[in-house]
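ok so dumb question maybe but i'm new to this and my supervisor (M.) told me to 'just get the structure for Exodeoxyribonuclease III' and walked off. so i did the thing. is this what she meant?? sequence i used:
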Amino acid sequence: MKVVSYNVNGIKARLPRLLEYLGEQSPDIVCLQELKSSDETFPEAAIRDAGYGAVWHGQKGFNGVAVLARDRDPVERKRGLDGDPDDTHSRYLEAEVDGLVVASIYLPNGNPVPGPKFEYKLAWFDRLIDRAAALFAEERPVILAGDYNVIPHDDDVFSPPAMANDALMQPESRRAYRRLLAGGWTDSLRTRFPAGGVWTFWDYQAGAWRRDAGFRIDHLLLSPIAADRFEDAGVDRDYRGREKASDHAPTWVRIRNPA
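this is what came out, is it supposed to look like this??
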């Protein structure tokens, strides 16, 4: 079972690339982030024509997450995180597919630092950690997949000095990510590539793709039962180089089917 995390950076703009990816790779589950689409304008028909059922949590022009499943309809479990009734951002969607629980996560960017956006990022992280603990207690195969907007280690970025002042690399951001992992979760891509040097994002500016000036912010975290079924993980980086591509590449983990 191949489970993919893919920040599409606008699903309407990137729909040809998404459909191309689905047709060429046939992943079993795809967790999408940054839809930038309302619920009403989500392209359900095109995705269903490609052979995928979907659940989504949209927001016009910003954020937005979805879960796609090949030849089946995901069963939604939870929309949004508890802990802040005033939070209107569409950043978390949890679904079940064939006994596997998956969450599509779009964590706040947090820039500029310091400031209210960074405080929101850290508070949102606390709420995610609480939800992850509840999922962990269910003792089921779970994958927390998404754009975490955190560069966990210096070897996860092309140049640590270049990103030193960014919210993605602040000690508080990294500490929150470590707290999440300490709850019993396995970073699948780090397990496959323990020495780092694997990027999932390349900015549109300054020729970042051409220079391979990227970093790793897309992560798929496995519960113990899912980690026991781990087979491989990687990045389908060639899709970042295609015409009108997202600035993220599809990032994936392969596990033995829980069913």
